[in-house]
Amino acid sequence: MQQVPYSHIRNFCIIAHIDHGKSTLADRMLQLTDSIDQRLFRDQMLDDMDLERERGITIKSHPVTMRYRAANGEVYRYNLLDTPGHVDFTYEVSRSMAACEGAILVVDAAQGVSAQTVANVYLAMENGLEIVPVLNKVDLPNSDVAAVTHQIEEMLALSMSDRFHISAKTGAGVPELLEAIVNLIPPPPAENVKTGVKTRALIFDSIYDAYRGVISHVRVQSGSLKAGDRISFMTVGRQTDIKEVGVFTPKPLPVKVLHAGEVGYVVGAIKDPEEIRIGDTITLAAQPAATPLPGFREIKPMVFSGIYPVNTADYEKVKYSLGRLRLNDCSFSYQAESSVALGFGFRCGFLGLLHMEIVQERLRREFDIDILSTYPAVVYRVFLNDGTMLEIDNPVHLPETTRIDHIEEPVVRAHIICDNGQIGDIMKMITDRRGILEKTDSVDTRRLMVTAKLPFDEILVDFYDTLKSVTHGYATMDYEYIGYQQEDLVKMDILLNGEPVDAFSVMIHRSRAAARGRQMCKALKESIPPHMFHIPIQAAINRQIIARETVRALRKDVTAKCYGGDITRKRKLLEKQKEGKKRMKQVGNVNVPQSAFIAILKSSTAG
After folding, report:
1. Would you say 58 and 47 are in contact if contact means Cβ atoms under 8 Å apart?
2. Given 324, 341, 376, which residue is the final one in a domain?
3. How far is CA 281 from the centre of its chain?
4. Are 72 and 134 contained in the same domain?
5. pLDDT tens, position by position, 164-206
6. What are the residues whose beta carbons fall under 8 Å from the beta carbon of 124, sequence distance 6 or more?
7. How far apart, in whole angstroms, are the C-alpha atoms of residue 14 and residue 452?
8. Between 501 and 11, where is the model more confident?
9. What element of type H or E holds 264?
């Protein structure tokens, strides 16, 4: 690809709420800059996962380099990063922003400013990016350009004087936006190309290739990188020789040199994913820089779930697969654990429920593994009588009740944007989940932004789906973690045949334990097949039974051979059978099928 002057480089990302048209706008830009052969073009060109295309959402950030000839005849290089829109992937967005100087904020002219729009704007401001607001889908009959323009100026304090009104689907207005990027988004800082500045490049993503090893996605801040250079990773201290450097067009295209200000990839000789850390700085081993670039803040997983192979022989395969996934998703964590019911597996941490669902689906598809997952849980703070504080992400590890002084649970502040007429349903949802309504703000004449404080555990599984259901799909939600608060929380065990099954244990508020216990017992009763003996299914708190169901025993008709005679003959046979079943119950094991674990997850959303 032809080299351009440093002042002709523009690095920017596209940010928006989910389904506001980021990927479609990226498609039009690729077409208008002739970055893709029309014969190879397909919708959602930058979404290369089948999962992304099926769901119509972006999961991973995707960089692409475009060559644009402006109206003044000059050639510019646009480095674009398409970003996810869902709240669970905000960390992915923040990493993309670290490689940019500007952001194009896409707002749906029909739906208006949504919750994630506000969160993304604040994130861009924190990163010091130049924000260019754009109204998309102006060709729709229900678009309200004037009202949404007012929302952007009032809520986000962004000027709409340039008034970019586009339709990413038809391409209307996109050429004018491409031309405006030249003037509205600044080039990389000029001090990075001064004489004597040492080479520094930020790793903002990584992928693993079976043949080439770890491929790092980098933004070269200063200096240059080329094949043959000996480089050092400043945080981990690892050194390697560069085999290849290149850019994304959107397919990888090798180039001779990656200069300052450019975004591309680096292929070294590193085969172990554990040796690369996203957010690390690459420098030349012969002339190392004094300090690394500011990386990314360490992000802590908020949701934990156990992942176990269905076939225990696949344990090592699951471990290898999790390591591969961890390489390009550092917000995901895992560590080995074992369960009496499920055997050996891993305790995995995620940013949210969608993030958990995506990781599990990628394990099944990309690595062809059958897995089971346990009920998702958050991290609780358990304060003991001696003043010690423990962080518990698995109810199995909870200490004895007599040792516990109190328990705290994580709390989030949720921002929900909804129509005025839906405020009653929203308030009921919040109070039903032990939430506190903090305030309401008017977005415009039709919509409100509701701010509420909620226990994170209460919005974990079904809150978002219920929100979409009661508001007919119009409400949007974003949340931020704000800390911990003390609550009356208890551990609820599920007992099968009198024995607790650790995989079914959950932490729950005492006021909701009985209802949840009945749900779980009922779900298990329908999933566990009949055995030769009765199976009691019980929910218990501190050995106190709060709910019970019974799986009836399979019964052989032992009186079939009696064709008459005294009733005592039949009674004798039935008593003999009864004694046999008692002995069987003492030594019999309950077979719990995979469907039972799935039923437990589904029962939480049904209630």
Report:
1. yes
2. 376
3. 25
4. yes
5. 888 888 888 888 988 988 888 988 887 777 667 888 888 887 8
6. 15, 97, 103, 105, 131
7. 29
8. 11
9. strand 263-267
